[in-house]
Design brief:
Mean pLDDT: 85
Radius of gyration: 21 Å
Distance between the termini: 57 Å
Structural class: mainly alpha
Helix content: over 70%
Low-confidence stretches: 1-15, 202-221
Number of helices: 17
C-alpha cells in the first residue's frame, strides 16, 4: 500500500483502516447517484462519509482539501471527491473514486439528452424542457450572488475596487463575447498578479503562470471534434469560480460560434445539468451530444473531466504548498471575481433566449422562489418543468 493509502490516526484515537477499492467504488458511487444539489451537497456528503461516519479523514485534512481544490480551475467538488479518494487509496483510489462519482449522473444526462434533443420530442417533453430552461437565468443569478460574500471578504481597500472591475469585465464578456470569456478570466488573473507583484508581494517570474494556455485559443477553428475538444477543455481546465461558470463558457461556443444547439436547447442542457445527480460540469455532455451524438457526449466528458484527475494525480503531494502559495491566491483574486461576474451576467443572454410570455412569467416566479422563499434549485427546476409540461398538454404555445 502506498503512503497515500496508509491508515490515518485521528487525534489520539486508534488508527482507522483505509477503505478497500471496492468500498471506494461503492461509497463514491452512492454519492454520484444521490448527489443532487451541486457542490454544497457533494461537499456535505463527502464530509459526512469521510470525516463523520467512517472517520477515514480528520476534519483538518478535509478542510484543507476544500481550500486547495477551490484554488484550482475546474469543478471543485469533483476534484475534492478525487482528492479524498487519493488520500485514502492513492492513485488507484483517485481513479476509482472519481469515475464512480462522475459516471452515474453522466449516463443519466446522456440518456436525457437523447430524449430532449430528439428531432421531434413528445410535446410534453418539449414543454418540460422549455419550462425548466425558462428559470435557468434565475438559478445562475442565485449561484453568482451566493459566491459574492466569500470572495469579497478576502479583498480589502483598493482591492475591493479591483474586485468590482474584474466582476464587471466578466459580466460584460458573458453578455457580449461568451466564446472568449476564458481570455478575460486569464487577463483578470494576470492583472491581479501584476498589481500584487508591483507591491512586492509576488515575484515577477509568477507572471508566466497562465501564458501557455493562451495559444490554445487557436483551437477555436477547425473540425467539430477539435472545436468540441477546445470547448470541453475550457470547461474542465480553465474555468474559475465554481461549476456555474461553465454556462457562459459553453453558451458562446455551442450556440453562437458553432451552432450545435439553439438557445432553447442550451437552456435545456443547463437545466438537465442541475436536475441530475453529480457534478454540474456534466452539462458539457449534452453539448457534446448536440455536436456529435453519443460519441461526442462521451468525448466531451472525458476532455472536461481529465484535468481534474491530472491535477490530483500529478499534484496531490504538492497541495500543501499550493494552499500557501501567494501566486495562486493572487491569480484567483482576479480570475475569481471575473468568473462570478460572468455567472451573473450570463442571465442576460439566457433571458433574451426566452420567446414565450409564459416562460418569462415562470422566470419571474423563479426569482421569487429562489430569493424570497429561499427554496432549493432542484425543486424550482422540477416545478418549472412540470408546469411547462402541463402547459404543453393544455395547448400552450411552445418555443421553436
Amino acid at each position: 500500500m502506498d503512503a497515500a493509502a496508509e491508515p490515518h490516526r485521528l487525534g489520539g484515537a486508534p488508527a482507522v483502516t483505509a477503505p478497500t477499492l471496492h468500498e471506494v467504488l461503492r461509497e463514491w458511487g452512492r454519492i454520484g447517484c444521490l448527489g443532487f444539489g451541486g457542490p454544497p451537497a457533494h461537499i456535505a456528503m463527502l464530509r459526512e462519509l469521510c470525516v463523520g461516519r467512517r472517520r477515514w479523514l480528520d476534519a483538518e485534512e478535509f478542510e484543507d482539501g476544500i481550500t486547495v481544490t477551490n484554488l484550482l480551475p475546474g469543478p471543485a467538488s469533483t476534484q475534492l471527491a478525487i482528492y479524498c479518494a487519493w488520500r485514502l487509496r492513492g492513485n488507484a483510489g483517485a481513479l476509482v473514486g472519481g469515475v464512480a462519482f462522475i459516471v452515474p449522473g453522466l449516463l443519466l444526462i446522456i440518456a436525457l439528452a437523447g430524449l430532449f434533443l430528439a428531432s421531434a420530442p413528445p410535446g410534453w417533453v418539449h414543454g418540460a424542457g422549455a419550462g425548466a430552461g425558462a428559470v435557468v437565468a434565475a438559478v445562475a443569478v442565485r449561484a453568482g450572488v451566493s459566491l459574492v460574500p466569500g470572495s469579497m471578504e478576502r479583498m480589502v481597500g483598493a482591492a475591493r475596487i479591483r474586485w468590482v472591475v474584474y466582476a464587471a469585465a466578466g459580466a460584460a464578456a458573458a453578455i457580449g463575447a461568451g466564446s472568449w470569456l476564458v481570455l478575460v478570466l486569464l487577463a483578470c488573473g494576470m492583472i491581479e498578479l501584476i498589481v500584487r507583484s508591483a507591491h512586492g508581494g509576488i515575484s515577477r517570474a509568477a507572471l508566466s503562470v497562465a501564458w501557455p494556455v493562451i495559444p490554445l485559443a487557436a483551437l477555436v477553428a477547425g473540425s467539430t471534434w477539435v472545436s468540441l475538444a477546445w470547448t470541453s477543455f475550457k470547461v474542465g481546465a480553465l474555468s474559475y469560480g465554481g461549476g456555474f461558470v461553465i454556462i457562459p463558457l459553453m453558451q458562446g461556443d455551442a450556440v453562437g460560434v458553432y451552432g450545435w444547439m439553439t438557445d432553447g436547447e442550451f437552456l435545456n442542457a443547463v437545466a438537465l445539468g442541475q436536475v441530475t445527480p453529480g457534478p454540474v460540469v456534466q452539462t458539457v455532455a449534452v453539448v457534446g451530444y448536440a455536436a456529435a451524438g453519443v460519441a461526442g457526449a462521451f468525448f466531451a466528458s472525458v476532455v472536461a473531466f481529465a484535468p481534474s484527475f491530472w491535477f490530483v494525480l500529478l499534484g496531490g503531494e504538492r497541495f500543501d504548498r499550493l494552499r500557501a502559495n501567494r501566486r495562486a491566491r493572487a491569480f484567483l483574486g482576479g480570475a475569481g471575481p471575473a468568473a462570478i461576474g460572468a455567472i451573473i451576467g450570463v442571465a442576460v443572454p439566457l433571458t433574451l433566449a426566452l420567446d414565450q410570455a409564459w416562460q418569462l412569467a415562470l422566470l419571474a416566479a423563479a426569482f421569487g422562489t429562489l430569493f424570497l422563499l429561499r427554496r432549493g434549485v432542484v425543486l424550482t427546476l422540477l416545478a418549472a418543468g412540470a408546469i411547462g409540461a402541463g402547459l404543453a398538454l393544455a395547448g400552450a404555445p411552445l418555443p421553436d
